[in-house]
Design a protein that fits this description.
With about 290 residues, the chain is α/β, with parallel strands linked by helices. It has a five-stranded mixed sheet, sandwiched between helices. A hairpin with a 2-residue loop joins strand 1 and strand 2.
């Protein structure tokens, strides 16, 4: 529902002629729902921005939140929603701060019958509802974006690639290995191999609760990708239960080295690096 030119003009006049009262009461009513979680100064500033945006838009005539002349007001509402979402306020608390204006308008119109009719209040109230819904939708989109970013950060933290010593890196996996996490493991391992020029990588699955066909395929793809980068992978953490499952599923690791524990994998790599060192020493002596 859009406000007519006359209705928007009367709304602008109502908001500007009672500016101090509107700001004070709006801040007071909105603050009651926030229970002191936001300072009065910050809340007052937000209310002033909303008030300014509404007045500017209403003074331009026909008023609808989707209209071109409501761009400034939409920007203020979006900033409010994004800020509240990042600060941990709920969607209800955010929208309530906007809906509080309806109480303020009702008080003004009841105190002075010359400020508008019941029809005007219904129109004003409908427009404030539009503002509240816009705020709610923007808040939800912002929260979804924040949650997605946090999930990505947690995913990166749960897949560390550790440099054990020169030429050897390790990837200790803990928890379920799904497609998204497997992709992160592969990317981080390959990047670390490039950064460290390491010829060996240990993929430890001791902390992986179960290995099915999908998990095994993810591991095999990671090993193949590492080989293309010139690095050999050793898979450690093959417990008896996992070994039985792998055999039952008919999964073959081929010539990929597998060890029962991380300690066995480390000893295996030490032998490999020791042989290489010995060969280099022999060649130098020759």
């Amino acid at each position: 529902m859009a406000l007519s030119a006359d209705e928007s003009g009367r709304l602008a006049a109502l908001l500007t002629s009672h500016t101090d009262r509107v700001l004070s009461r709006w801040t007071e009513i909105a603050g009651a729902s926030l229970r002191g979680r936001l300072s009065q100064a910050e809340l007052r500033r937000q209310v002033e921005d909303l008030h300014r945006g509404m007045v500017t838009t209403a003074e331009q005539g026909l008023l609808h939140l989707d209209g071109e002349n409501a761009g400034e007001l939409r920007a203020v509402l979006a900033d409010l929603s994004r800020g509240r979402a990042r600060q941990g306020f709920s969607a209800t608390e955010t929208a309530t701060s906007v809906f509080a204006l309806k109480d303020v308008l009702l008080e003004l119109m009841e105190a002075d019958s010359g400020t508008g009719t019941l029809r005007d209040y219904v129109a004003y109230s409908s427009f404030v509802d539009q503002m509240g819904l816009f705020t709610f939708e923007t808040y939800v989109r912002t929260r979804e974006s924040l949650i997605a970013d946090q999930a990505e950060q947690l995913l990166e933290l749960s897949t560390p690639v550790v440099k054990l010593w020169e030429g050897v890196v390790a990837v200790p996996l803990v928890g379920t290995l799904d497609s998204a996490r497997a992709q992160v493991v592969m990317e981080r391992l390959l990047q670390t191999l490039v950064d460290t020029s390491s010829p060996y990588a240990i993929i430890d699955i001791t902390g992986v609760p179960a290995v099915d066909t999908q998990v095994a395929q993810h591991i095999l793809k990671t090993v193949v990708a590492a080989r293309l980068m010139g690095a050999d992978c050793i898979i450690s953490g093959i417990r008896p239960q996992i070994a039985q499952t792998i055999v039952a599923l008919g999964i073959e690791f081929g010539d990929i080295a597998t060890k029962a524990s991380l300690a066995d994998a480390l000893r295996h790599v030490l032998r490999l690096t020791g042989v290489e060192t010995a060969r280099r020493t022999t060649r130098r002596e020759r």
